[in-house]
């Protein structure tokens, strides 16, 4: 290769625009795709040959396909420009169609959707289902038929998440979850095993809020979220405060076969007996440890997991006594200590990403957990601002590894804006809301398409043949989906620019109307955002300390996906945010006139009309959705 070509390795996480463009070419000429992907280009960057995952022992034999380069180029160009002709979007009907499709594909025995292998794509499944549930279940006027569908949606999402927690995807010893291809019963093959903070902790708290406090599943989801939060803080947080992307495969390279037997996650039965002593039998019974391992040999082609136990809890064995719980905790600590000291740790993909969550609000009643999550989120935001953000130009870099990485893409702006709005609502510091407003303006400048509507996925780049728009959700929601949600929320924070935000939001829906009507399930997160707009946003203005009042706790611990929460602390009014929010400005002017500090209260505003302040928890609770 080096004798005849200039070889360039591209990190698809750093340059998703490059990956997206040439993946479409590969799919166009071969009918399929995959990674690792290899593309042969002319000096002008035009592709003429492509393939995926070439076997080392076989000759290069990928078919060129029947389509010519120009034909595929036209296909790519056409696909990147969705029709902006007006399409009638019946949001509720489309949401029902997506629900019914998921219901048909749901694995009622093992959780998840479709057949093995399964990939837990949260954005297309539980993210949508939680909002579909809230849309109908929280509405007193919902029909009996829609009420049944809402409960079914909640139950599907709940079973999927609890199966993940109780199955092989969870790392019981070290914490966190695997981002992996699941088999039908919750075990996993060895083809892809990565730790990641990308999906698992961030959408799960919503299901937690949809359940009554007495629900055992709610307890499980709480344990799941806290487990991953702990793992992120311990293993995926850089010394500087940023959150790293993931840990890579646990298998050692093929060239060091003997050391593969010491893979980081592997714990065989004899080792457990030796390490745990008299506690071993109880531990093995509880976690289903078998002599030859409990991983199906059909999914362990190379024999790497023979004699190894996949971490799998077994709650079907009933409630354990307090002494047994102590033994299990002690045994896990022993195994974790042994693993950290004696096993090669997975390589850390230490590119820093911009990921923040709402977990601090969800666990507001658990003060220690809430503070830990809020601190992680604020440290991550501070790192991004310090290392990935240019204050002068307002631009983002996509990643950080020993310095700034490539320029930010549309999804970097979208997800960071989402995280900053969540962080503002969780902690009440107006700097995060103001930063989000500025970032949205920069995203509009770099990515908005004033002619065709919607947003390009990448900024102008002479090395990219075609700027594409991609509304299809994958492992994460698409940039277009998150941007739609951001614009809807920002129109209430920066209320004086409501019309401008609304027009851009509407252009996203219109420019993707064709795909929403024909295949709404590929843009489930976008449909979720459209569903919230259809329901109408509720703006809550809380007067009082952002660190906690019973009223604020009531709002925060209720799942309201169409919520905007604005803080008005009389001791430190948000004067800068008030400059773009007339309702907030009028309330602050009242404070400045020397009026007596108001009692803690909450004003609920809908359609930009605000009610009188509510000062009693019972009255506030009566106006919030109920999911009993």
Give a verbal description of the structure.
The protein has helices at residues 16-30, 69-79, 91-105, 126-137, 144-166, 200-209, 216-235, 257-260, 269-276, 280-287, 322-342, 359-362, 367-387, 410-427, 430-447, 479-493, 498-511, 513-518, 524-535, 550-556, 575-578, 582-592, 617-622; strands spanning 37-41, 47-52, 178-180, 193-196, 243-247, 348-353, 538-543, 563-568, 601-606, 609-610. Mean pLDDT is 77; it is low at 61-66, 180-203, 247-262, 299-320 and 349-357. The strands form three sheets. The protein has a four-stranded antiparallel beta sheet with strand order 3-4-5-6. It has a four-stranded mixed beta sheet with strand order 8-7-9-10. A two-stranded antiparallel sheet has the order 1-2. The chain is built from 23 helices and ten strands. It starts with 15 loop residues before the first helix and ends in a 6-residue tail after the last helix. Helices cover 45% and strands 8% of the residues.
Assess the beta-strand content as a share of residues: 5-15%
Helix-and-strand structural type: alpha+beta
Overall domain count: 4
The strand count comes to: 10
Helix content: 40-55%
Compute the separation of the termini in Å.
63 Å
CATH class type of the largest domain: Mainly Alpha
CATH architecture of the largest domain: Alpha/alpha barrel
| Biggest sheet descriptor | 4 strands, antiparallel
Q: What's the alpha carbon Rg, rounded to whole Å?
A: 25 Å
Q: Looking across the biggest beta sheet, what order are the strands in?
A: 3-4-5-6
Shape type:
globular
Tell me the number of helical segments per DSSP (H or I, 4 or more residues long). 23
Average pLDDT over all residues: 77
Uncertain runs? 61-66, 180-203, 247-262, 299-320, 349-357
CATH fold field value of the largest domain:
Glycosyltransferase
């Amino acid at each position: 290769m080096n004798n005849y070509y200039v070889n360039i390795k591209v990190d698809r996480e750093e340059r998703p625009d490059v990956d997206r463009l040439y993946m479409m070419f590969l799919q166009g000429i071969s009918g399929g795709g995959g990674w690792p992907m290899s593309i042969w280009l002319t000096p002008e960057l035009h592709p003429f040959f492509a393939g995926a995952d070439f076997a080392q022992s076989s000759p290069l034999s990928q078919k060129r396909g029947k389509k010519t380069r120009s034909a595929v180029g036209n296909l790519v160009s056409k696909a990147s420009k969705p029709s902006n002709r007006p399409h009638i979007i019946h949001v509720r009907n489309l949401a029902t169609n997506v629900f019914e499709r998921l219901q048909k594909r749901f694995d009622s025995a093992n959780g998840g959707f479709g057949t093995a292998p399964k990939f837990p794509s949260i954005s297309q499944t539980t993210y949508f289902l939680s909002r579909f549930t809230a849309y109908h279940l929280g509405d007193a006027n919902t029909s009996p038929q829609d009420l049944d569908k809402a409960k079914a949606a909640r139950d599907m999402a709940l079973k999927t998440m609890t199966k993940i927690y109780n199955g092989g995807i969870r790392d019981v010893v070290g914490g966190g979850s695997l981002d992996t291809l699941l088999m039908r019963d919750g075990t996993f093959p060895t083809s892809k095993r990565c730790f990641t903070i990308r999906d698992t902790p961030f959408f799960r708290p919503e299901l937690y809020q949809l359940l009554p406090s007495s629900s055992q599943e709610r307890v499980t989801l709480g344990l799941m979220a806290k487990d991953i939060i702990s793992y992120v803080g311990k293993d995926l947080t850089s010394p500087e405060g940023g959150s790293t992307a993931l840990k890579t495969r646990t298998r050692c390279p093929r060239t060091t076969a003997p050391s593969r037997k010491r893979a980081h996650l592997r714990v065989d039965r004899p080792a457990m007996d030796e390490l745990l002593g008299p506690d071993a039998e109880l531990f093995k019974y509880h976690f289903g440890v078998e002599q030859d391992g409990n991983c199906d040999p059909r999914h362990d082609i190379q024999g790497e997991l023979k004699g190894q136990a996949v971490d799998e809890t077994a709650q079907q064995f009933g409630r354990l006594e307090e002494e047994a719980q102590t033994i299990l905790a002690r045994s896990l600590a022993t195994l974790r200590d042994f693993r950290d000291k004696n096993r090669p740790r997975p390589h850390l993909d230490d590119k820093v990403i911009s990921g923040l969550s709402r977990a601090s609000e969800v666990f507001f009643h658990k003060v220690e957990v809430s503070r830990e999550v809020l601190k992680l989120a604020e440290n991550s935001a501070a790192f991004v601002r310090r290392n990935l953000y240019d204050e002068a130009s307002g631009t983002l870099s996509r990643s950080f590894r020993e310095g700034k990485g490539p320029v930010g893409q549309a999804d970097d702006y979208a997800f960071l804006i989402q995280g900053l709005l969540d962080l503002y609502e969780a902690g009440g510091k107006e700097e995060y809301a103001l930063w989000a407003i500025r970032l949205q303006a920069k995203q509009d400048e770099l990515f908005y398409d004033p002619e065709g509507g919607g947003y390009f996925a990448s900024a102008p780049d002479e090395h990219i043949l075609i700027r594409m728009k991609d509304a299809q959700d994958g492992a994460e929601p698409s940039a277009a989906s998150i941007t739609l949600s951001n614009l809807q929320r920002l129109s209430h924070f920066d209320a004086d620019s409501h019309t401008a935000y609304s027009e851009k939001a509407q252009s996203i829906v219109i420019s993707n109307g064709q795909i929403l009507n024909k295949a709404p399930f590929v843009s489930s997160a976008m449909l979720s955002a459209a569903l919230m707009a259809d329901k109408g946003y509720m703006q809550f203005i809380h007067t009082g300390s952002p660190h906690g009042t019973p009223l604020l706790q009531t709002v925060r611990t209720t799942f309201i996906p169409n919520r905007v929460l604005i803080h008005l602390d009389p001791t430190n009014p948000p004067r800068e945010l008030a400059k773009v929010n007339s309702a907030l400005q009028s309330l602050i002017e009242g404070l400045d006139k020397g009026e007596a500090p108001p009692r803690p209260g909450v004003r609920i505003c809908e359609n930009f009309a605000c009610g009188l302040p509510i000062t009693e928890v019972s009255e506030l609770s009566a106006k919030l959705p109920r999911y009993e």
